[in-house]
């Protein structure tokens, strides 16, 4: 063990205020200096790689685990619906004007059949919810293809590549895996207009390593087998494609040389280019006449073809630095290209992030540049004007409704927008639960006030506990919010890299709150800040050192030296503190963890420090948690993956960390992001495949809750009020909550004696049970965890009925409570 003594204190200050912005904040976007591959870096330290086979094995483990009835409770959706999140694709069936499909960066696939009023997740049974592209057959709109893996590089969101291709033949009700599990992320899917079984796929390959599994792939048997038809290099994938609307032999593919490492990136090179095939992908020729040819300057390329005149295509080239290099048009199927009015396009940099080019299907001269913002030309690119004004920045997807004139849908980092007048104005859809949260908090004085910090979508909150009334109160990428537990009007909010703001007027305005924190200190993308549990005027803030304030962030003082191992040239770590916890029993007892595997303790409020991690894994420490009931007990959790005989993910100590017990036990090899300690409710873990629970340390873990999809859970919050709710913040599916006051209600376990039939159902559903109590409660939750139907039946009958005729098609969970016994059953409505 190592002991250090504080020998110096620094008094420097930086500003820490971000104002809210209705259009997003350009500062949230990556630069060379910003650690914006945070999700990957957490999980990849120290090896620099992810163990993707371990992720798949963890999903399989989760599906196989038996559940005690006390853990088979449904999660309730906690919002928000109206904040939104990153959308990677939008599709509208050609014959269903009110049906839309959207793909979310890390939230799966959603479908609406009423023009966006209500949405249902239709991909939640799959193990990977990161979506690259969706394609719907024009001949049979029940046939849908989904390619997994967000194709955008970095941007704070990417933890995992995709796991291949999936196909549905019934409008998304059921799915079949259709191969290509190793191609990383999917840039584009094309279905031959004359043959449903012939599909071409553009694959970008794994993001963080060179790999030959990238390029154009083709199947002629509906995905049973695939052939790689275009391979450029092991660092060059296919980012975009286009196909002739009536001749599937004519195909275009845009290649992008892209090298991404935690410490560097190369977004272009000589192998970026535009290719054409006239034989369905069997042979390819590069298109160069009138297009950029300088090897060092070619970056991301996007392309689209006119549906009304297929000889017309548009292409946008970005250079390796991220600036728009040129916007081009061809009128002869790609033989020659002419640069259009590139100078009128807004050039903000980092254009490798944006969606590209979309041509109005009814007019070859109407084209949209879908970019940081949206610009539109009605004369083939000769002139440009603003379109979709006042939407969230960072555009990725666009779709035209073939059945409704003027209806255009736009997808960006803030969600989905609909225009009914070709982009002249638009309205945001307020019903999609796809926010990517890093952190959350619930006000101790008013549990209806729930706060969350999100990627791309700032710090937002609800003051009513509602699902659709969340408002952004602090800009940038959002991280840990806090509320003074003695004054609901005092709020702290963080944006990326430790930019801390404070409000004293219930969030109406914020001012910088980092006075005394050295501007030269290293600050994590997700900088930790916490309150003393007994004194709201005392807070702690972590750089590579621990800072303390005793006057509610008026000024800060360092109370430690460097608790990390120092800077790391490989940038897999930041050399920073990642977690801080203060014992509620003895507030001089403070624990911290770092991104390079260190765990420290002070027993005297920071005068002396003792290192506790000599026998712990060298991985990113995600949480150190002091037991709220016993001062000698402490827990620590780790991100990353085990290799060989390396230690587990969860450790427990009964002597303040002097010795540790690995309590990972049966938990699969999966990153853990947070831990919450209840009393008799148990111990809860946030993992990359959901929430796990044990009754007490040393028991086997089990998945907790029934209807939470396999989404990354980034943060847990245990409500200390009498309501006993556990909250889970997810990275792509907003927030959920569950009443853990019921977590120990086993009573007479009648799970095996209860049946729900028929299943699937379309009319009446009968619930049969043995020995019910006098009152039976039935609550039906939809796929989002919203209470869809509830009723209490009396009389002690052995069977009860209810109708599902008015239910939407999809999956539901039926929670049946009889006295102290309860069970949750899955129900499919068809």
Automatic annotation (TrEMBL):
Segments forming domain Sortilin N-terminal: 165-291
Segment forming the signal sequence: 1-19
Superkingdom of origin organism: Bacteria
A Pfam family matched in the record: Sortilin-Vps10
Domain Secretion system C-terminal sorting: 758-829
Single Gene Ontology BP annotation: xyloglucan metabolic process
Keyword terms: Repeat, Signal
Name this polypeptide is given: Por secretion system C-terminal sorting domain-containing protein
Organism whose genome encodes this protein: Ulvibacter litoralis
Organism taxonomic ancestry: Bacteria, Pseudomonadati, Bacteroidota, Flavobacteriia, Flavobacteriales
